[in-house]
Design a protein that fits this description.
Length: about 625
Amino acid sequence: MKHLVSNILILFGLLLLVVGFLPPRATSAYDLAAYGRVPVQFGTRVLPLDSVARNTLRLFSSGTTLTAPSSTDFPDGLHMAAIQWFLELSLRPEVADRFPVFYVDHDELLGLLGEKIHPDPLFSFRDLQPHLDDIAKAAQLADDKKDAGAALNSFDSAVSTLRDNLMLYQRLCISFVPPGGQPVDDWKTWQDSLQPGSIAFTSQQAGRPFDEASLNAFLLQTKRYMQLSTAATVGLIPPLSGNTDTWMNLGEGALAALHSDHLSPVLLDYAGLGAALRHNDAAAFNTAVAALHQDLGPAATSSHIRFEAFINQVEPFFWGSLLYVFAFFCACLSWVTLGPDFRRGAFWMIVFGFALEAFGMFARVYLTGYGIVINLYSSALFVGWVAVLFGLVIELWKKNALGAAMASFIGFTTLAIAHHIPFTGDDLEMPRAVLATNFWLWTHVLCITSGYGAMFAAGFLALGYIIAGTFTARLNSCAAREIGRLVYGITCFATLFSFVGTMLGGIWADQSWGRFWGWDPKENGALLIVLWCAICLHARWGKLCSERTQMALAVFGNVVTTWSWYGTNLLGVGLHSYGFVQGTFVALTAFWATQFIFIALALLPRRYWRSQAALA
């Protein structure tokens, strides 16, 4: 009974750790899990349909679930997973057209759609269909401005994004079954026309008599599938030989029958899926899914495909963020109760969250074959993970809940930042050409991002010092010196890794671009971190500042680090501009403003601090 509360908290954290690994509860008679594991080629990757569904829905609406519209097809207000929505989009698009999935919240864009006030920012394709021409014209004007080198305003960006999303939606609708009519009948008509049409075509070319009706039907279908081969965006049929990595899409698969006189069984399986869904026959659908897996052969049983579908189910970063939230509140409660139970519970919750985040990051390494950090999204994950590691070490050493509070706050914040990074379609996309070398991804990039994580750990520890000293009377001289030593030690670590990472980056640049240093904005940002770390250390070594001023310098390190990490990307120039994202300037400015407020608090005269006596 001595540690009853902490044991309950640890069990609760353990429950959150394992809950994502439990098999999902079936919510439909259709085997959505099996459909979600079907492999396709989308973009540069072969991935399960569940990933395509999640990525597409997140691109359109910034979420991975949605609420079905009231209709005869679905129960009122049904909460749907992405794969259930994508099932309709891929096989029964006339139903999917009613789903509100397109996020529109720009006032001027709403005006273009005739919506002065719209209570819900989500629109269906059917809602937007009457305005497709207006959207296309406005987006073309934005394209013309961009081509002319003019700056785009927020409306230009919003309308271009909506145009691109609508185009992708329409291309997905025609990527799985032939549009219009019944897919099974469509394929039967094509197969029946192959032999007589080919004979008629050959006879016409040779100047012999031919059946004009057979030729016209054949040419009409051939033209249709040639158009589909350029419009369909998803590869459905695996390569027939090892000479290519490109999968055939719907139109290409149909035209391949010209040489083999029969359709790929994969296309027939998709047609069977569509027919079963249109007839609401779950048993026939499940049979067709099983046949599709069998006809896809080794591609369907690939360990990468099955593992990615499993990771989608587990959602390690979501459950990790929940653990960090609970851990933060437990750490705060430990200061109120002055007992070890909540502190111990917080520590183990962070350990579980840290383990989940590590599992998710290394799962990404396995799936991509590249390093941990390959884009802006993965850098946010790793920077936070490094800071959490520092917090765990501090908590294990000091046992005062400060490390736990810092670790849980940064862990949740960086996961939230990663989730809200403007999404471009696939956070597991292959790295840009300049990054496509594993040696430098595992050396330069990890060193630099480890330096980022250490700087944030030092900066947030300093924030804890300032908050405790300004608003409470609990920061005594012993605690103040302890935090000062921790900030100093972590700053030393940040200096080492930032300097080594910058040097490694110069060597990489010399190999890739033929110059060691080019004053690129990102390079300048890395140098700024090294210089600021040096300033912080020399100010302490030379006793040029008080302990409180040292904390202010560490907090300003948060500003320098976020500028190097994110701010330089906002410039959109330089050889490192592959990480450019829009829409983050306001968030960055707000963050910098809070840091300057804390710096001002740190520099207040001592009499304005509640913890006065202990501070120099």
